[in-house]
Design goal:
CATH architecture: 3-Layer(aba) Sandwich
Radius of gyration: 15 Å
CATH topology: Aminopeptidase
Order of helices and strands: EHHEEEHEHEE
Helix content: 10-25%
Distance between the termini: 9 Å
Number of helices: 4
Number of domains: 1
Bound molecules: coenzyme A
Shape: globular
Largest sheet: 7 strands, mixed
Strand content: 25-35%
Length: about 160
């Protein structure tokens, strides 16, 4: 566990922080306020990391599950630059795994830009493996690298560094 940081379900009070976090992504890839509201209405779909006793969102993840699918998906994951390098991203991946497990999913999958070295290293060190390429996935026409990982059946690893 990263010292003093915990992960909880997002609420509408987090909306401004979530929208601000999205500025880390190219404009065409950002989640709209409307979509954030829709995601937050789904239980367990949006989780945020916060410092104990402080309301500001340090990072967030969107986890999508579908009733008839055994695969959950990390749709978005971002950490505020001021909080990066402290294990928050890894905590959010673990929260996504826990959510996938709670939803009864066998695998957790995601898409990442091939040139996003930080995210690829994060996912690789969390046990995700390259599974292929999705052509023209992003709004600018860039292909996505697909990565996935088996969802553990026991407790989700909470170790950080
Ligand atoms: C990718 C991102 C979420 C990582 O968040 P973070 O909180 O800084 O990551 P953590 O501190 O939990 O790092 C965990 C591991 O990821 C890897 N990692 C994180 N940042 C890295 C970087 N800049 N370069 C290389 N590896 C990195 C390391 O293996 C690190 O473990 P270590 O600290 O023991 O070396 C963050 O950089 C970010 O929000 N980037 C912009 C948005 C984005 O690209 N999201 C992913 C979309 S798929």
């Amino acid at each position: 566990m990263t010292q003093g940081v915990s992960v909880r379900a997002a609420t509408v009070a987090d909306l401004a922080d979530l929208i601000h976090l999205e500025t880390l992504f190219p404009e065409g890839d950002r989640i709209s306020a409307r979509s954030w509201r829709r995601f937050m209405a789904r239980e367990g779909c949006v989780v945020v990391a916060t410092e104990m006793g402080a309301p500001e969102v340090l990072g967030a993840a969107v986890i999508l599950t579908r009733k008839r699918s055994q695969t959950a998906r990390i749709y978005s994951l971002a950490v505020d630059p001021r909080a990066q390098g402290r294990g928050v991203g890894r905590m959010l991946v673990q929260a996504a795994l826990a959510q996938a497990q709670a939803a009864g999913c066998a695998r957790l999958s995601l898409e990442v830009r091939p040139d996003n070295a930080a995210a690829r290293t994060l996912y690789r060190t969390c046990g995700f493996e390259d599974r292929g390429v999705m052509p023209e996935h992003y709004a600018d026409g860039t292909a996505a690298l697909i990565m996935d990982k088996e969802v553990p059946s026991g407790p989700v690893e909470t170790k950080t560094q």
